[in-house]
Q: What sequence folds into this?
C-alpha cells in the first residue's frame, strides 16, 4: 500500500502519479485524507484527555493524602475515561476504513514508465531472429497431439477446459525445463530455493496485493479460508512477513517452483486453443528483497536472469516496458518478456519482471534496519517469472519442430530430458 505520510505531505503529486494509470484517483485520495484528518483530530483529543487524567489522578492522590474528599474529581475522571474509550473506538473504526481505502489504491508508477495503454508499451530490446521454415510451421496443439504429448480432450474431461494434460515426453520436457531453470538460478544467480505451500491464508494474499483486488480471479477454499496460489510470488514474498531484517541480510533472493491457479476472469474467448491460457500452469519464480536505493538496478538484474534462460534455449524474444495503463495493480515498473511462437505467429508473454518499491512491503510489514540504532525502513520487493510454463513449452515446440513432425530438444536441456529428439509415438 502507499505511504499515507507521502499523501498527506504532497497529495497533488500522489494524485498526478496515480492519474497516469488512466483513471482519476483524486476523489479516493481526498476521501482518504478526510479520514486521516478525522483520525488525527481524534487522537489529539484523546492524548489531551489522557494527559488531563494523569494530572488529575495525581491531584486525587494528593487530596486523599490530605484527607480531603476527592469524589467529584473521581466522578469527573470516570467521564473522561468514558470519553477516551469512545474516542479509541472511533480511532479503531477510522483506522479500519483508512486501511480499506489504501488497499484499493494501486502503486505509483515510476517516472520512466511511459503513459498510455497497451499501445504505448515500448519494446526495449530484442534478441535472436525468428527461424525460417521450408514448410508451414504448425501450432503447438497440433504438434503435441500428433506426438501424443499434449492431451487437451482428456484434461477437459477430468477438470473442464483450461486444464491440459502433458504425457510421456511432454511431461518429461516440462519437468526438465523446471529443473533447468531452478539449477541456473541457484547455481549461477545466487538464489536460495524454497518449496512453498500451494494454499495460503487471506492475510498472505493481501500481503502481496492479490486481495481484495483480484479475489474473483483466484480459487478459494471457503471452509478453511485458504486460497490456491496464483503464483509462488505470494508465499515467497510473505516468507519474512512481520520480520525486521538486519541490513546484512539484504539482498534476499529466493526462487521457487509451483503450480499456479487462476480463474482468468474476464479472459473468455482469448487464446482458447492449446495451452496459451489455462487455469493451472507451472512456473519458476524469482523474488528479491532489496534496499530502496538498489531496487531499480535490481530490476535490470532480475530481468537479465530471466532473459538468460530464453537465450540458452535459443528462443527469439523481446523485452517490453509496460505503459502505465497496462501496468499491474501492485507494480511500479514492469518488463514483459515475450517469446516468438512461429506456429501461432504471435509473441507469447513468458515472463513478467517487476519492482513493487515498498508497496508490498507496507502491506506485509517487511522491514529492515539500515544500521545500529537507526529507524527501520521497508524493503523494496521485486519478482519475476523465470520462466512461466506452458507458454515456454509452446514456443519451444513450435520453434524446434521439424517437417517430419518430430521436435528437436534444445541442447541445454538434453541432460534433463535424456533425449535429443521427440518423435511420434510407436504405433
A:
Amino acid at each position: 500500500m502507499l505511504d499515507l505520510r507521502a499523501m498527506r505531505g504532497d497529495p497533488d503529486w500522489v494524485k498526478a502519479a496515480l492519474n497516469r494509470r488512466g483513471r482519476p484517483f483524486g476523489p479516493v485520495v481526498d476521501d482518504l485524507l478526510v479520514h486521516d484528518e478525522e483520525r488525527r483530530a481524534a487522537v489529539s483529543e484523546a492524548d489531551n484527555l489522557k494527559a488531563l487524567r494523569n494530572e488529575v489522578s495525581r491531584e486525587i492522590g494528593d487530596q486523599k493524602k490530605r484527607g480531603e474528599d476527592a469524589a467529584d474529581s473521581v466522578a469527573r475522571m470516570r467521564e473522561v475515561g468514558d470519553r477516551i474509550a469512545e474516542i479509541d473506538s472511533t480511532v479503531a473504526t477510522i483506522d479500519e476504513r483508512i486501511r480499506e481505502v489504501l488497499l484499493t489504491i494501486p502503486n505509483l508508477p515510476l517516472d520512466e514508465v511511459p503513459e498510455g495503454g497497451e499501445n504505448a508499451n515500448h519494446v526495449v530490446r530484442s534478441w535472436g531472429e525468428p527461424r525460417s521454415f521450408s514448410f508451414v510451421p504448425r501450432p503447438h496443439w497440433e504438434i503435441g497431439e500428433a506426438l501424443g504429448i499434449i492431451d487437451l480432450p482428456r484434461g477437459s474431461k477430468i477438470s473442464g477446459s483450461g486444464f491440459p494434460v502433458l504425457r510421456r515426453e511432454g511431461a518429461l520436457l516440462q519437468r526438465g525445463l523446471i529443473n533447468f531453470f531452478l539449477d541456473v538460478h541457484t547455481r549461477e544467480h545466487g538464489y536460495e530455493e524454497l518449496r512453498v505451500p500451494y494454499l495460503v491464508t487471506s492475510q498472505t494474499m493481501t500481503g502481496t496485493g492479490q486481495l481484495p483486488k483480484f479475489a474473483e480471479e483466484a480459487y478459494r477454499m471457503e471452509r478453511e479460508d485458504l486460497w490456491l496460489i496464483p503464483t509462488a510470488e505470494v508465499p515467497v514474498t510473505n516468507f519474512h512477513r512481520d520480520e525486521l531484517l538486519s541490513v546484512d541480510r539484504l539482498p534476499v533472493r529466493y526462487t521457487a517452483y509451483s503450480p499456479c491457479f487462476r480463474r482468468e476472469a474476464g479472459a473468455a474467448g482469448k487464446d482458447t486453443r492449446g495451452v496459451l491460457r489455462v487455469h493451472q500452469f507451472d512456473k519458476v519464480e524469482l523474488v528479491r528483497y532489496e534496499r530502496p536505493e538498489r531496487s531499480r538496478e535490481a530490476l535490470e538484474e532480475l530481468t537479465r536472469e530471466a532473459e538468460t534462460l530464453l537465450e540458452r534455449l535459443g528462443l527469439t524474444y523481446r523485452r517490453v516496458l509496460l505503459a502505465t495503463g497496462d501496468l499491474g495493480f501492485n507494480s511500479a515498473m514492469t518488463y514483459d518478456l515475450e517469446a516468438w511462437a512461429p506456429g501461432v505467429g504471435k509473441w507469447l508473454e513468458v515472463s513478467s519482471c517487476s519492482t513493487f518499491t515498498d508497496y508490498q512491503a507496507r502491506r506485509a510489514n517487511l522491514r529492515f534496519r539500515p544500521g545500529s540504532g537507526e529507524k527501520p525502513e521497508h524493503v523494496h520487493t521485486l519478482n519475476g517469472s523465470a520462466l512461466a510454463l506452458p507458454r515456454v513449452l509452446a514456443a519451444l515446440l513450435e520453434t524446434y519442430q521439424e517437417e517430419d513432425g518430430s521436435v528437436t530438444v534444445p541442447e541445454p536441456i538434453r541432460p534433463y530430458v535424456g533425449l535429443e529428439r521427440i518423435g511420434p509415438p510407436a504405433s
Q: What stands out?
A: The longest helix spans residues 26-65. The mean pLDDT is 94.
